[in-house]
Write a structure and sequence with these properties.
Number of helices: 10
Distance between the termini: 28 Å
Structural class: alpha+beta
Shape: globular
CATH superfamily of the largest domain: P-loop containing nucleotide triphosphate hydrolases
Radius of gyration: 26 Å
Helix content: 10-25%
Number of domains: 2
Strand order of the largest sheet: 7-8-9-3-10-11
Amino acid sequence: MSASTRKSMRSGPTGLMRALRPAAGEAGDLAPSSAPAPRPATADALLSLRNLRKTFGAFVAVENTTLDLARGEILTLLGPSGCGKTTTLRMAVGLERATGGEIHFNGRPVDAPERRIFVPPEKRDMGMVFQSYAIWPHMNVHENVAYPLRVRRRPAEEIRREVERVLDLVGLSGFGNRPATRLSGGQQQRVAVARGLIFGPDLLMMDEPFSNLDAKLRDQMRTEVKLLQRRLGISILFVTHDQAEALSLSDQVAVMSEGRVEQVGAPFELYNHPGTAIVRDFLGRNLLMEATVVGQGGDGSLILELAGGARIESSGNCHIRTLGEGSPCTVSIRPEHVGVSATAPAQGRNLLSVRIATLLFLGDHFESSVILPDGKLIDVRLPPLETWQEGQTVSLELPARAVHVWDRGPTDE
């Protein structure tokens, strides 16, 4: 290790962290950068949640949640069951009352407990699509879709015209007289969407709307909702635990865990630059390996030694709080960023020689468990055009800018 490197290591986290920051003007999908900060509050946001809190007795379901939904945008609340995403949506639409904080819609407060303000859901001009569809079996399609206009006492001719319009929008033209119970799951979901749109709301709420559909229908409905949203220019607050839905549909994603928002950002940014280990592990797959900091490269990259002795270099995001020579850490890399070669055993930095333990053929790729130099297993993807065999030695290439460095958490020990 050079004298300059030793000096940088002795200086603690500041020197190494500074070295890992990109120079001005650098770009790239995996280039080093800090995690994106949540967007600041905007005066023209359609929906604003400010320090929102919800408790059920002693249980805190949502804590200190601040989010903005812009006009014409899809904002998705993403997280596992019990993280508070549905409770947040239900407060936004008015089905639950907030314990603390405020909700603003169209520039005015609709729920502010400390100011004793509460606007009921029927006066918030928000459409709602429930997970269960909530289709009334005793009504036909026309009657289901028309219901929000009937309770608003709209004229019969206007109701007929508007029902025909929205049924055409969702691809159900001519289905008006069909009994609701004789529809497929995908058709019932379209009826629910049409009913949510019938009165022209500024905001459509969707709570896990595709969870009851099979995989092919889910893909189809995602595309249809995205096209419909772009065509109408409406805003959508979407709730899901499905990361594929969140990444493919959203303009912004808020990842939630234990009632709090972990990180907010565009799908591309969250996936490539997760700010916390929770976001890292919930969005996509990661290969995680134990390592130790051993130095700094001449270009400001971080030199790491994996368990087993192999050395790799990282110029990706660094999330270590206390950084210095000998610091234990965890390195992560997305499987799709790992290069695999069937040639001779690897030689050089960021190349690992591993042995295939198991192979699963999935058509467009192989899923393989490989044995690292320290004896641990990780799962990688192998291209389908090669003839792979269990027991075969292969080389893995870990691009330096795709390697992220994290504090070693309790689950990584």
